[in-house]
């Protein structure tokens, strides 16, 4: 995995603007793993994908994540810092295939990946989404030592399976325990590395464009020359111009 440098940030940002978040995540990872085909990255479980996104964010912008939340009790704005290692649950993201006993049936399945979620996202309702997810991810259903079709699972069994899948991929569903010092309210909030990282990249890309604009205007340098400079050197030149 390589960090994103200034030219990568602008390229990924430009491409990702028009993309669905599922594709955006793959664009980010493909920049970090340029030798790995995009199709292969799409087959990572969502937990594995998010673990890589978290590592990429750490390599690119550092390990500290500045967060804020609004207290649902008193509306106080809460600012806090988490570190990447606090929310990286590596040991639990490796296994792709699992099994679950539901009643008389033993269900063997694989964890959902980006391709599954992209297919499910087009479903017309929750039931259709649940059916499609089970159809795509169930590898085998065994009842009385005989392999039976996934469609023989009841609606309840399918819902149970979908719930179990989510529990097996905790990296895909990070929740933070928050406490408001002003009113003592305690609550949980979801931390989504993809939207967090994308918001940061969005800000960084706009800043980079502004830097290019300022330096190109002052010195006549090309965009590629300015972006290939180290951050420190760019800041010195900007300091002299502004
Ligand atoms: Zn509060």
Overall description:
This protein has 242 residues and is α+β, with helices and mostly antiparallel strands. It contains ten helices and eight strands. It has helices at residues 6-16, 21-32, 38-41, 46-61, 114-120, 126-137, 155-167, 193-219, 223-228, 231-241; strands spanning 64-70, 77-83, 97-102, 105-110, 138-143, 146-148, 174-179, 186-191. It has a four-stranded antiparallel β-sheet with strand order 3-4-5-6. The chain has a two-stranded antiparallel sheet with strand order 1-2. A two-stranded antiparallel ribbon has the order 7-8. The longest helix is centred in the last third of the chain and has 27 residues, at 193-219. The radius of gyration is 22 Å and the shape is globular. The mean pLDDT is 93. The protein binds zinc ion.
Counting DSSP H or I runs of 4 or more residues, the number of helices is 10
Radius of gyration: 22 Å
Name the overall outline. globular
- Span of the ends, CA to CA: 36 Å
Could you provide a short overview of the structure?
Helix content is 49%, strand content 19%. The chain is α+β, with helices and mostly antiparallel strands. The chain starts with 5 loop residues before the first helix and ends with a helix.
What descriptors fit this protein?
alpha+beta; two-stranded antiparallel ribbon; 8 strands; 49% helix; 19% strand; globular; binds zinc ion
Protein topology:
Elements: H1 6-16, H2 21-32, H3 38-41, H4 46-61, E1 64-70, E2 77-83, E3 97-102, E4 105-110, H5 114-120, H6 126-137, E5 138-143, E6 146-148, H7 155-167, E7 174-179, E8 186-191, H8 193-219, H9 223-228, H10 231-241
Antiparallel strand pairs: 1-2, 3-4, 4-5, 5-6, 7-8
Helix pairs in contact: 1-2, 1-8, 2-4, 5-6, 6-7, 8-10
The chain binds zinc ion.
């Amino acid at each position: 995995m390589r960090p994103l440098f200034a030219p990568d940030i602008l390229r990924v940002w430009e491409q990702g603007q028009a993309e669905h978040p599922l594709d955006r995540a793959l664009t980010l990872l493909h920049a970090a793993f340029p030798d790995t085909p995009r199709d292969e990255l799409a087959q990572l479980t969502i937990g594995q994908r998010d673990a890589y996104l978290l590592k990429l964010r750490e390599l690119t912008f550092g390990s500290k994540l500045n967060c804020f939340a609004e207290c649902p009790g008193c509306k106080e704005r809460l600012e806090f810092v988490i570190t990447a290692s606090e929310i990286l649950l590596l040991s639990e993201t490796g296994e792709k295939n699992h099994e679950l006993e539901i009643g008389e049936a033993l269900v063997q399945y694989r964890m959902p990946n980006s391709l599954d979620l992209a297919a499910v996202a087009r479903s017309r309702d929750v039931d259709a989404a649940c059916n499609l997810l089970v159809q795509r991810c169930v590898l085998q259903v065994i009842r009385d030592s005989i392999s039976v079709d996934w469609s023989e699972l009841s609606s309840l069994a399918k819902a149970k399976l979908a719930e179990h899948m989510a529990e097996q991929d905790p990296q895909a569903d990070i929740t933070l325990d928050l406490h408001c010092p002003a009113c003592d309210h305690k609550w949980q909030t979801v931390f989504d590395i993809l939207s967090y990282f994308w918001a940061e990249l969005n800000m960084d890309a706009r800043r980079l464009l502004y830097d290019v604009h300022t330096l190109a205007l002052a010195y006549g340098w090309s965009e590629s020359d300015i972006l290939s400079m180290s951050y420190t050197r760019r800041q010195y030149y900007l300091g002299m111009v502004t």
